[in-house]
Design goal:
With 168 residues, the protein is mainly α. Helix content is 67%, strand content 0%. The protein has one domain.
Length: 168
């Protein structure tokens, strides 16, 4: 069995984890928007716990595993292309929204609900834009090599790392 035999399995795992991650990112702002102080204390605690636990135990692990399987696929499929780098720029946007949701969950918790989480529309629109952009790039795999890319991204600069790298 060679490493390349792992590709279809890794891709299936990648698709599964990214589906859970993106579904979670779309659902969490909706759950946050329901942190309404006029709710009964018990109802408020319930929605707050559900948001917290799904973020910590489902959406964040799915994000880490989607990124890890994607990173492994880069090297196994040897996908060193401009469309993948463009995809990673958009994935960074997903990670930023993920971090913002985490920050909002903590702020709501620490202010005992006095912090009004924003409406879910804007985060939802940003997420849909990012996800659609990623899917277009990864499924169409457009030839972006003609794109003007900074010179420092195109050729090695002959600089050395600030630490010794063992050469096998
Ligand atoms: C840092 C995070 C990620 C990395 C490093 C990554 C990397 C990769 C790589 C190398 C492939 C294989 C491409 C090929 O076989 O030609 C792939 C496939 C795929 N990725 Fe990602 N990915 C990441 C996140 C995501 C996210 C967030 C989404 C969706 C929102 C996504 C959607 C897909 C899809 C749909 C495929 C299958 C494409 C195909 O079979 O041709 N990826 N990813």
């Amino acid at each position: 069995m060679s490493w390349t035999d792992l590709i279809p399995h890794l891709k299936a795992l990648h698709l599964g984890f990214l589906a859970l991650w993106t579904a979670g990112l779309l659902a969490l702002p909706q759950m946050l928007a329901r942190h309404d102080r006029s709710l009964l204390k018990s109802e408020f605690t319930q929605i707050r716990r559900a948001t917290h636990y799904s973020y910590v135990w489902a959406v964040t692990p799915a994000a880490v595993l989607a990124i890890a399987t994607g990173a492994a696929l880069i090297f196994l499929r040897e996908v060193f292309t401009v469309w993948l780098f463009a995809k990673l720029v958009l994935v960074t946007g997903l990670v930023a929204v993920h971090a913002w949701i985490g920050h909002t969950i903590i702020t709501v918790a620490e202010t005992d609900g006095r912090h009004e989480p924003p409406d879910a529309l804007v985060p939802g629109l940003i997420l849909v834009g990012l996800i659609l952009g990623i899917l277009v790039l990864v499924l169409a795999k457009p030839e972006l090599e003609e794109l003007p890319v900074p010179a420092w991204l195109q050729a090695p600069l002959g600089r050395s790392l600030p630490f010794d790298v063992p050469n096998r």
